[in-house]
Each structure stands twice: as structure tokens, then as C-alpha cells.
Specification:
This protein has 14 helices and 13 strands. Helices cover 51% and strands 15% of the residues. Strands 1, 4, 5, 6, 7, 8, 9, 10, 11, 12 and 13 form an eleven-stranded mixed β-sheet that branches.
Amino acid sequence: MKLHNPFRHRPSQPASEEAGAAEVEPLVPPIARADRFTAQDLLAEATSGIGSRPGRLVVTILGTVLGIGSLIATVGFAQTTARQIERQFDAVAATQVVIKPATARTGSGDSVATIRLPWDSPQRVERLAGVEHAALLADVDLRGGTVTAVPVNDPSAPATAPPPVVAASSGLLDAVRGRVVTGRSFDAGHDQRGDRVALLGARLAEQLGVSRVDRQPSIFISGLAYSVIGIADDMQRRADLKDAVIIPLGAARADFGITAASELQVQIVVGAGKQVAEQAAIALSPDAPENIEVSAPAGRSELGANVQADVNVVFLVLGVIALLVGGLGIANVTMLGVMERVGEIGLRRALGATRRQIASQFMVESVMIGLLGGLIGASLGVFAVVGVALVQQWTPIIDPLLAVAAALLGALVGLVAGWFPARRASRIEPVTALRSA
């Protein structure tokens, strides 16, 4: 490309010769300064400057790649780890709601329930958002009766206190996080028909010598035979039921005159405690919700949120440090390039390049290096997060917009890192540069 120099000295000619020359060869108007070095020329010069030194380009991009890749990896690991921590806290979070009728003191000091829980309380509560399972429970008063595994009453046997007998609706094990070890649990059909079936707690079944239910063993509750159809264990929310006999509410109402349930066990999702507490009282007693006592857990654990916040801060600080290292690498290599290209800069200035054009060339070079390093670093960071998550059998979590923003951040880092070297290059005088070249 031939550059036009408006400052070139032309020898003086006689007026007649100048007039004749003007007739033969008209003067071409000088090219405006703004048109001598277009944006396309700037991009071409910057690209050629980058591609002319592949070894240095690799070293420079490596710093940006490490910086951006470390930032993406640390943020992605922070998000993925925070989710794993959240799941761990959710696993042990309180998700149990206990609903009881409010009690009032009588003149003699006894506690009396002011209202009864409806028999369809589980169905009413399970319609609420956030409720997974619900079951009614009632304590059965045997009034001196016994619970035995043999029909014969041995007068010589030492007297022992009978195990507790609890009446419950179907779905009890789901509500209290229990599981059936042997056999099965009773269902809604047993409850509606009032079938005499029983579910034994694991510890009580061991005491009574009942380990199998395939032969339809029976226990006798106050002389009434109940078929044991299953043995239950765990029951994390009501561990006392491991030592109890659990029978359907229908059978308890028919055989023992149960008139009201004592409590409602509700299993909810994490964080729904406050909402369920407000709505359950209205669902069970629309006219007098204040007569319903609801014991519900608070929202998500504040400890879990604090731990997640701390983890995010630590990873973010590490990512910023890595990014600063990458930016310093760009600045150092760009500054080195300026020092090595002093002669080239002086030649360009001597040919008419302005300070702004020199500075723009080095700025564009730095931005292109930063953008290229950002793209490669963001890709490597995403692959690192996904790879580690698959090895650990985690769910990788990373925002796709973060990867795009990281690539643009690489260009921004290149812009900031190249500002000072570009400014220094623009201040080099042509005479000084050519003299030192």
C-alpha cells in the first residue's frame, strides 16, 4: 500500500512550467488524514502483528487461558459444590409437621382438647402445596388389657406392662419415614372395613418372638385376635413406634371406642413449613383455626446458606486472583513487544502514523489476544467442571451466560492490560526510535 505524505517537499518550478504542468497533469487533492489509516487497516496490522510471533502468541494466550479457565472452573465448582452442600443439608433438614388440637385446662387442672381433628384430616392436608404424606394417630387405652402372642393366659407368669397400642390411618409409614421389614402394611381398605390386622414395631416383634408373617401369626389385644401382616422398622419421626402395636383406626374405633385422633403426622418438602403451618389450621378447622396447634419447622437452614456463601466467596477470590495473573501476563508480554518494536514504531511515525493510530494498533492486538484466550479458557473451564462432576457423580451446574461473559471478560482484560503499553508506544518519538533501532 502506497502511503501519501502531504508533508513531502516539492522543488520549486517557474510559474510557466507550473502552469503547463497543471494543464498536462492536474493536481490530485491530498488524502484526508482520517482516510489514511482506516479501521480495516488497523485490524489487518494488528492481526499481522499477532501472527508474526506465534511463540510469543502462545505464551501470551496461555496466561489468559489459565486466568479465564480458572475463573470459569472456580465459579462452576462453587456452584456445583454449593448444590451438593444444599442437598446434604436438605437431607437432614426438618420436614416433619405435627398437628394437634389445642388443649385447655379444666377446674381440676386436667387438659382437655378444645376441638377434635376430623377423620379425613390426612386427605384435607394432602391437598395443600408442599405436603407429601399425612397420617392420623391415636393412642389406644386398653383399660387394663394385655397384649400377648399366645391365646393362653398363664397366671404363673410375671405381670408385665403391655406394649403401647397405637391406631393409625393408612400411609403412616410414609408420614414417619418408616419401612416394612417383613410382610406389608395395612391400607385404606383395612381401615374402612375395620379389619383386625396389626403392624408390629421391629423391637416389639423381637420381644414377642414374631419374625415371620407368612404363616399369619396373631397377637391378642385384650383377648381380641389381630393378624400380624407386617413388621416395620426405622420410623425416624416416631422412633417409639418400634415398641408398639399399630392397628387401623377403623378397628380401634370399633373394638376400643376411639372417638378422636390425638395428632396428625405430616411429611412436607424442605422449606414449606411456614406455609403449611398457616394453611393446615384453616383446612382442619375453618371456623376456629386458633384451636389447632401446628408444630412446623422453619425455612431452609441458615447454616447451610452461610456455608454456601462462604464457599462461593472462597472460589470467587481464587478465580479473581487467577484472572489478575492472566492480565499481568498480557501486560508484560505487550510491554515486551513494545520495547522490541521500537524501530517499527518509529518508522510508522516517520511515515505519518499518528500517536492515536499507534496506540490503537497495540490496543487491538491486546484485545484480540485477550478474546482468543478467553474463548479457549472458557471452553477448558467448562470441560473441567463437567469432567470432575461426572467423576464424582455430581450434577454439573454452570451458567451458560457465564461462559460467554468470560470470553468477553478476556477481551476486557486484554483492553485494560494493553492500555499502558499502548500509551507508552504512542509517546515514542520517531527520531528517538530510529536512532535507537
